[in-house]
Design brief:
Radius of gyration: 16 Å
Largest sheet: none
Strand content: under 5%
Helix content: 40-55%
Number of strands: 0
Distance between the termini: 27 Å
Number of domains: 1
Structural class: mainly alpha
């Protein structure tokens, strides 16, 4: 499990395991979404991605009004929870891809995804993946793109021939 100290994280906070979230059933995810994700998960995710929380909230289309309850909200509204959970599952997907490659040591899936989200991608017609985070369909598009990268079916960077086929997944993702 990941453990990170954050200023807004409650003392009894549940820490996030990206791969567990990625592997949850739709039923389990729906239950999480309906209850509302804890607000501190937004902070935790921003920290893991290396993206300022304000910027990440904007990418996800999460405004202050998305926080349930009164002035000190503890959970996100349903729509905001769904988008945040989708992003968290993308981190889990990247972490799973690297773990399945047998080379997870030293790889930071959150940081890698945070960087990838901000870089224009050939497969997205030169657009940044972060532009697709504010809708569930956009997140599904990004998940599919990550799967295609894993299996070598997509041009990822400026070199159209570059894919994950025939090379180390970790080396490919790290660009070494």
């Amino acid at each position: 499990m990941m453990s990170t100290t954050m200023t807004r994280t409650p003392a009894n906070a549940q820490h996030v395991d990206w791969m567990v979230l990625h592997r949850e059933t739709p039923w389990e995810r729906i239950q999480r979404i309906k209850v509302g994700l804890p607000v501190y998960w937004l902070d935790h995710t921003a920290l893991a991605l290396g993206i300022p929380m304000k910027d990440l909230a904007l990418m996800l289309g999460i405004g202050r009004s998305a926080r349930k309850g009164t002035a000190v909200a503890t959970h996100l509204a349903t729509d905001a929870s769904e988008r945040l959970l989708g992003l968290m599952c993308l981190v889990g997907q990247v972490q799973t891809i690297v773990a399945e490659s047998g080379e997870p040591c030293g790889f930071d899936a959150g940081r890698w995804l945070g960087n990838w989200l901000l870089c224009p991608q050939v497969a997205l017609q030169g657009r940044k993946p972060s532009e697709f985070l504010d809708t569930v369909q956009g997140q599904l598009l990004l998940s599919g793109l990550l799967l295609q990268m894993q299996h070598g079916g997509v041009a990822v960077f400026s070199n159209p021939g570059m894919s994950l086929k025939g090379c180390s997944v970790k080396r490919f993702l790290l660009g070494v």
